[in-house]
Amino acid sequence: MMRVFLVDDHELFLTGVRTELANHVDVVGWASDVDDAIAAIRDLRPEVVLVDVHMPGGGGLAVIKNISEDDTDVRFLALSVSDKAEDVIAMIRAGARGYVTKSISPADLVDAIARIANGDAVFSPRLAGFVLDAFAESAPTVSDPELDQLTAREREVLRQIARGYTYKQVASRLSISVKTVETHVSAVLRKLQLSSRYELARWASDRRIV
Amino acid sequence: MERTERQPALYRRSDDRILSGLAAGIAESVGVSPSYVRAAFVVLALAGGVGVVAYLIGVAMTVNTIDVGNKTVIGRSQKLGLALMLLATLMTLRAANLWFGDSVVWPFGLISFGLAAILDKGDNYMRLSSRMLPGGDVSARPPMSRMVVGTVVLFAGVATFVASRSALTPLGLPFLAVLVTAIGLMLLVGPWIVRLVSALNEERSDRIRSEERSDVAAHLHDSVLQTLALIQRSDDPSKMVNLARAQERELRQWLFEADPDVDSTLLSTALQSMAGRVERDYDIRVELVTVGEVQLNPTLDALVRAAGEATANAARHSGVQWVSVYAETADGQVDVFVSDQGSGFDVSTVDDDRHGIADSIIGRMERHGGTATVSSEIDGGTEVHLSMPLGSDK
User: Fold this and answer.
1) How many whole angstroms separate alpha carbon B165 and alpha carbon B181?
2) Residues in Cβ contact with A180 at an 8 Å cutoff, skipping those fewer than 6 apart
3) Claim to verify: residue B296 and residue B154 sit in the same structural domain
4) Whole-angstrom Cα distance, residue B114 to residue B189?
5) Three-class DSSP labels, B296-307
6) What is the pLDDT of residue A174?
7) Is B18 inside a domain boundary?
8) Is B21 exposed, middle or buried (0-12, 13-18, 19+ CB in 10 A)?
9) Which of A56, B49, B205, B365 sits at a 20 to 30 Å CA gap from B179?
């Protein structure tokens, strides 16, 4: 079973997720503040960490940044009630491999964890929309076209995800394999994390819709 | 200076300072208002710079003794003694020729002590009498008699100064007199006005803060707390979910509408409120994603209405708990996809009485120059694609 660690400062939510996941993954530990989380993750070395965005003491961002510095094997899935673009983009750029909201169904959450453990990326419809929006105009002065622009195919895959389709449905709608969908999404994740497009930061901070 | 020999040791006060708190420290150990000590330093500084040197020595001696001491109150005769000692010091300095000249030192001496008398917040008076009002510092003004004496001394100083200079500027004298009077008045009432205004501002922002807080508290009480109470009393899980979902929606909307930056004339905002309406009416979740942005116009209003109809249809007929709405503005057109993963239907067998699709969606889109495509299969979900070119406003 996948070894999963939970970080959330809401006790109720922590308990709920632990119960939901108990039959599907091995929850090796949990923490409700940033310092405890960093220490425990270093100690337990889980495969996947579910991390809340907003927490006292720097939030999920601090956890991801601290761990990613010395341990690249631990993968992060951000989990939050916040749909704010700046939160989403900040978590992804810090190194999270996916972002889902807390209203996600338990089955979908287990799917997402498995995908993260495999090294793939998990995009919620909202995140796919954010990426499409942020990479919308092909600026004439992009410094690195390979990193700063999406390919037509990547765009198409993101559109399908934004329309609410699962990876499997996207694959069959575009007549490609699920593996190809995963490859495209991972490529987009990489661009999102490494692109120097200045629009990304500006766009995220301009965008204030809850 | 002679004051340094008095008990307790010389120290500076960190809580009441203009430069280093030395004057306040001295004033406290001696038992007079800091304003007078400051005035003394100013006058001594004019006496050939003695005050500056004395001040620096004082600071150097008190590097490690910055403290908030206790207050001693001294009597009238002691104060008189201190004043005479200062006068004696000045005379000595004058005799020793450490002096900028009578025409400078005496006027400024009068001005300094006049100001000190006026600016003195009168701690001792206020403390000894029961005139401390609950409002605090705003009312902490010196007693009228001292104000009058201070004002007279101040103006005497100003007048002396003007008189001593008037020989040089006979033409400018009236102007100078007006100017000096104005400055004098400013010095007289300025600090008091500043204190009053800042106290008022503080009070107002306090009041705004507490009003906001009670607004939030009232709102949370009426909404979230009530819902939580209902959830605790409910046995039916589906009812709990509905309550929680409705509450979440309401709370988000409240937070959302409180944001003054939200522009209600944008497509995304219109779609947002459309989605909220459908969620409320049909008790399902609408996952809205918008890409790009455009200002609303009558054509796009029609698009939003058609999208609303499609979303409501999905909510009514699909039998699932959520509907996706995706809107993208790009390349001169707006595309909206309304999809659900529900039961679906056979598009070719839609009854004529399903006015929803025929009129409200396809008809409306075509009247405004757009297109609508419905694709669906049994158990394969339904997707409605609405497309509206921009700039086709007729």
Assistant:
1) 15
2) A171
3) no
4) 13
5) CCHHHHHHHHHH
6) 93
7) yes
8) buried
9) B49
Closest CA to B67 of B115, B16, B12: B12
Contact (Cβ atoms closer than 8 angstroms) between residue A116 and residue A25: no
pTM of the model: 0.59
**Measured over all CA atoms, what is the biggest interatomic distance in chain B, rounded to whole angstroms?**
118
3-state secondary structure of B131: coil
Q: Do A209 and B268 touch (CB under 8 A)?
A: yes
For residue B217, how many other CB atoms are within 10 A of its CB? Answer: 11
CB spacing of A209 vs B262 below 8 angstroms:
yes
Residue B319: count other Cβ atoms within 10 Å of its Cβ. 12
CA-closest candidate to residue B381, choices B336, B322, B329, B331: B322
A81 and A127 part of one domain = no
Cα separation of B228 and B230, whole Å?
5
Spatial neighbors of B105 by CB under 8 A, at least 6 apart, are B43, B46, B47, B90, B94, B99
Question: For residues A113 and B310, what is the distance between their CA atoms, to the nearest angstrom?
Answer: 33
Q: How far apart are CA B384 and CA A136, in angstroms?
A: 23
Option in A133, A162, A210 nearest B252 (CB): A210
Which of A82, A133, A173 is best to mutate for the B interface (most B CBs within 10 A)? A133
**In the predicted model, is pLDDT for residue B91 greater than 50?**
yes
Q: B136 by DSSP, 3-state: which?
A: coil
Enclosing domain of residue A96: 1-119
Residue type, A121: A
Closest partner residue to A129 (CB to CB) among B259, B285, B291 is: B291
Tens digits of per-residue pLDDT, A160-191? 999 989 898 999 999 999 999 999 999 999 88
